[in-house]
Amino acid sequence: MSSKLTRPSDLFGMKAIKVPPYTKSAAIYDHMMRIVNYPGWVRYLLNLIKIANRSLVQRSSRPNLQLLELACGTGNMSLILAKKGYRVIGIDGSSEMLYIANSKAKRMHLSSIQFIESDILSFKTDSKFDIVLCCYDSLNYLEGINSLGILFNKVNQCLKPNGVFIFDLSMENNSLYDASMFDQKGKQNGTFYHRKSYYEQSSKTHKTYIRIFRNGELFEEVHSEYIYTLSEVRERYLSAGFKEIGAFGDFTYLPATEKSDRIHFVLTNKQ
Ligand SMILES: C[S@@+](CC[C@H](N)C(=O)[O-])C[C@H]1O[C@@H](n2cnc3c(N)ncnc32)[C@H](O)[C@@H]1O
Q1: Based on the domain organization, do 210 and 146 belong to the same domain?
Q2: 42, 69, 222, 263: which has the fewest Cβ within 10 Å?
Q3: In terms of Cα–Cα distance, which of 194, 204, 188, 217 is closest to 18?
Q4: 185/208 Cα distance (integer angstroms)
Q5: In Å, how far from its chain's centre is CA 25?
Q6: Ligand 1 — pocket residues by CB below 6 A?
Q7: pLDDT at residue 21, rounded to an integer
Q8: Residue to mutate, 33, 34, 141, 174, ligand 1, most ligand atoms under 8 Å from C-beta
Q9: 246 with 209, same domain?
Q10: In a shared domain, residues 145 and 159
Q11: Range of the domain at 219
Q12: Per-residue pLDDT reduced to its tens digit, 33-80
């Protein structure tokens, strides 16, 4: 099944100004994601880390542990993890998303967190990390399986021995049966938005159009997410030298399959 291309309706009959992803939408990102249970998601991630290396989740050790969140966005996961005691660095390519993340960290008086603007394929850091995370479709934004390979090599270089790398991917089933039906309208602080998704099965590209009306102007962001198979992703991280602790389907602790909607991959560099 594949949905028809349906861009958001011509809001207000205006011509939309095209802007890059996560620029104009940054200000409404948390409103769009308000139904996402981030604390529950972080609890799941901590359980996955525990399966890989129990010592990395013990409360007493957390202030000594360095955690990197790639594509941290507005910091929803990073901030929870910093509050739980981890020393966190969050990296994202969008200065607008990081502006929100920094404002929230300031409001929460969190000093154990730092946000850095960079592409996740070319970030530079002198630190080595105990835990690296990259969640909520972020790696679906990388175009082409070779880019995933580059990212896996990069993460492997900055992970401490016995470190844990967890990432998730939204899979084709999700695009075919759930996300392609997605159509959300909302309003926050005088900003109106309309978000609509469409899956092109032939190119395995999941597109989301976001139209944002603010201060008399209409903007449009087009987000492209690329869909990969479990087997091609697995082949890439194994050849990057990772050992697989597990690939877990749909927020369970059961092995994922090609039919899972979302997979969390739990990897280690332990030999
Ligand atoms: C769906 S959001 C997820 C944000 C966050 N992880 C969360 O859970 O809310 C995807 C994020 O990936 C970032 N992103 C996508 N491609 C990137 C790249 N190549 N380098 C850096 N950030 C990237 C975007 O800026 C955006 O903040």
Answers
A1: no
A2: 222
A3: 217
A4: 13
A5: 15
A6: 22, 71-73, 76-77, 92-94, 97, 119-121, 135-138, 141
A7: 98
A8: 141
A9: no
A10: yes
A11: 11-29+173-226
A12: 999 999 999 999 999 999 999 999 999 999 999 999 999 999 999 999
